[in-house]
Design a protein that fits this description.
7% of the residues lie in helices and 27% in strands. It has 180 residues and is mainly β. The chain has one domain (2-23, 32-148). A hairpin with a 2-residue loop joins β6 and β7 (118-126).
């Protein structure tokens, strides 16, 4: 099992998973918060926060998991009232029409929560909605290894001038295959 950690998000990755944990460079007055991607396929450079550019590459046995942090103004709102990262999902939590970009055959879910005083959404895409019963175990395997710490002060820019994340955590190449 490989470990990744950045921006107060840590995970012990089950075999076959890759991860990126990063914070985008703000555009103008925008404030950016951490995003974590966990997947069973190579995460391409430039993948959008919710999987744009990656989910189209998924095979029927793949999963793509996102933890997207929102700003402190979201704390205490009804949307983020659920306490704690959902660690065990059921096949019934997934729908064929939830994904941001509807890709035929895929399924997904999106849940909002607060953990360690930080508001997040959990967004999951499954390569096959029809195989959700088999794939949910892979999702739960990665969620069970995630730890979220209380937030520290936001760091300065964490991406290169071309937008590639610099403050990205990745497992050691010796333990997990490299991704493109």
């Amino acid at each position: 099992m490989a470990d990744v950690s950045a921006h107060g998000i840590s995970a012990g990755l089950p075999p076959g998973f890759e991860a990126h944990i990063y914070r985008r460079v703000p555009s103008g007055p925008e404030r950016c918060y951490p995003v974590a991607h966990f997947s069973t396929f190579p995460i391409p450079p430039g993948t959008g926060d919710f999987g744009g550019g990656a989910t189209t590459l998924m095979g029927p046995d793949d999963v793509f998991v996102v933890l997207f942090e929102y700003g402190p103004e979201s704390l205490g709102t009804q949307l983020f009232a659920h306490r704690g990262l959902p660690r065990t999902l059921a096949a019934s939590d997934f729908k064929a029409h939830v994904l941001r970009r509807g890709i035929p055959g895929q399924g997904g879910t999106q849940l909002f929560f607060t953990e360690a005083g930080r508001p997040f959404t959990l967004y999951v895409a499954l390569g096959s909605y029809g195989r959700r019963t088999q794939l949910v175990g892979r999702v739960n395997g990665v969620l069970g290894g995630v730890t979220i710490a209380r937030s520290a002060a936001p760091s300065s820019a964490s991406a290169s001038p071309n937008g590639a994340p610099l403050a990205e955590a990745a497992p050691s190449p010796a333990t997990v295959p490299l991704w493109n």
